[in-house]
UniProtKB/TrEMBL annotation:
This is OLC1v1025680C1. Residues 1-40, 133-155 are annotated as: Disordered. The lineage of its organism: Eukaryota, Viridiplantae, Streptophyta, Embryophyta, Tracheophyta. One of its GO terms (molecular function) is metal ion binding. One of its GO terms (cellular component) is nucleus. It comes from Oldenlandia corymbosa var. corymbosa. It is found in: Nucleus.
Length: 507
């Protein structure tokens, strides 16, 4: 009986198939249900999807965190740069104030030394005269002594004899008008008017030591120097004056022009003048409410002793393949090319938009004095509620392209005005001998003299034409006002709709 049971168990076990695993051991195959395999695979797929989703969410969180850190870093870096720039300009202003103070002390000491020398010379002259009187009285009697005292020449300061023949010729009434205009960039009447206006400020009285330089000669030295840009040693030979005297006269007359003539000939237009300017600009371009055309140019200078990097003009250096340093002059002109606002003296490394932010014009706009009007500018300026600039994106519509042509007509007026300014006053075309702290005064005088010539219709010699090259760089934030962007689009649409944009053949 037991043998039969063992035989049956052996027979049942032999009916189950066997397989050999990787270790060579025989394992019996265990049958599984089909439904169990599918459930297991589905769970693994769902688990994998959940893990992938969690990983993707984790990656997104990390990316957002990194992006926020980068944004905070850039904002911190921008704030540091802004603080550094403000500190630099504060130090620059302190340096200029200190330099002006030292220059004033030096001039006072110089005047004191001159006065002391004059007093010494005068005292010596008095002693010599007394000794001469005493000698004459002992040898020839009292009457001859009195005659000798009366006939004694007056002692004067020795002055080097220089020829003034060229200036005497120019100053004569027979000197031709065209030759005078070619030499001084203006006619005799305009020159005479400037001399009359400045007489009360620049005139000096004769002294016992020497005769004062006449007003006409003083003004002529300054205007000739600005017009030709000649070195002071050549100016000295032409006018028969010392080099230091010529340098002093240029600065004195330029300062007098800024004090006396600038308030009269360079000022922001009043309401009546502003309306007339708007009408002229609208008739020229079709753009309404334009009160000025704005442009920024660079004036070359010798490398300064401090803050050299601030005055380094990178764009001019790359174009000319020569190291260039400069300061900026920003100007707004009316339709006739007359300056109504100038901002002078900021370092040449600053782009146009930063120079604008530092100007008094920007402060005037922030006070609401330019509401409802436009100042046309180039692509180097940002679009703001009062600054109208061209479209700068790559692909322009026909409307935008037509608008750019019209705003270009507005900007061309200021660019041409600066070209005439530099052409008329050649000292602005090359590096000058004037010190950096004195340059704003000289440049301001050039702008005032330009206005006088433009107002009095002084035509410029075509040979003096100057080609202006100033690189415009699109600002980091070209659009600073949504309202201005909508207003510009409306102006562009109206120009096209009213056939002011040169597209009448499409209608």
């Amino acid at each position: 009986m037991n043998d039969n049971k063992r035989k049956r168990r052996k027979k049942d076990s032999s009916s189950v198939p066997e397989f050999e695993d990787a270790n060579g051991e025989n394992n019996q195959f265990q049958e599984q249900k089909p439904g169990g395999v599918k459930t297991k695979d589905l769970k693994e797929i769902i688990t994998s999807l959940i893990l992938l989703e969690e990983q993707e969410k984790k990656d997104q969180d990390e990316f957002a965190k990194e992006e926020e850190q980068e944004k905070l870093f850039f904002e911190s870096n921008h704030q540091k740069k802004e603080r550094a720039m403000l500190d630099y300009y504060s130090q620059l202003q302190d340096y200029h104030r200190e330099a002006d103070l030292k220059e004033g002390i030096r001039k006072r000491k110089g005047r004191a030394n001159t006065a002391a020398a004059a007093a010494t010379t005068l005292a010596a002259a008095v002693v010599d005269a007394a000794e001469h009187d005493a000698g004459s009285g002992n040898s020839g009697g009292g009457e001859q002594g009195d005659k000798g005292a009366k006939g004694a020449p007056q002692r004067r300061l020795w002055v080097k004899d220089r020829s003034k023949a060229w200036w005497d010729q120019c100053n004569s009434a027979e000197f031709p008008e065209e030759e005078f205009k070619k030499a001084f960039r203006m006619g005799k009447d305009t020159f005479e008017m400037i001399c009359n206006e400045l007489t009360s400020v620049v005139a000096k009285e004769n002294t016992m030591l020497r005769d004062a330089v006449p007003v006409r000669q003083r003004v002529a030295v300054c205007i000739w120097r600005l017009a030709t840009g000649e070195p002071l040693r050549l100016v000295s030979k032409r006018f028969g004056l010392g080099i230091s005297t010529c340098h002093k006269l240029v600065l004195e007359v330029c300062s007098a022009i800024r004090t006396v003539l600038m308030p009269r000939y360079l000022q922001w237009p009043d309401e009546e003048s502003a309306r007339r300017i708007q009408d002229e600009y609208e008739s020229l371009s079709g753009i309404p409410n334009v009160v000025g055309s704005m442009y920024t140019t660079h004036i070359p200078i010798i490398a300064p002793k401090i803050s050299v990097a601030a005055y380094f003009n990178k764009r001019h250096t790359e174009r000319n393949q020569k190291t260039s340093y400069s300061i900026t002059v920003q100007g707004v002109v009316n339709p006739k090319g007359v300056f109504t606002d100038v901002c002078i003296g900021w370092p040449g490394s600053m782009p146009d938009d930063q120079v604008l932010e530092k100007s008094a014009l920007f402060q005037r706009a922030n006070q609401g004095l330019l509401n409802g009007v436009w100042i046309g500018g180039g692509s180097g300026y940002p679009l703001m509620d009062w600054v109208l600039v061209p479209y700068t994106q790559q692909h322009l519509t026909w409307t935008q392209h037509a608008f750019n042509e019209k705003i270009g007509d507005v900007q061309r007026i200021s660019k041409d005005a600066f070209a005439r300014l530099k052409g008329r006053w050649s000292c602005l075309q090359k590096r000058t001998e004037v010190k950096l702290q004195d340059l704003p005064v000289v440049l301001g005088a050039c702008c005032v003299l330009h206005n006088i010539c433009e107002i009095r219709n002084e035509e410029m010699d075509p040979e003096l034409k100057f080609d202006l090259y100033d690189d415009e760089m699109i600002p980091e934030m070209p659009l600073r006002s949504v309202n201005a962007m909508k207003a510009r689009d409306a102006i562009a649409h109206n120009l096209l709709h009213h056939n002011h944009a040169g597209t009448s053949f499409l209608s």
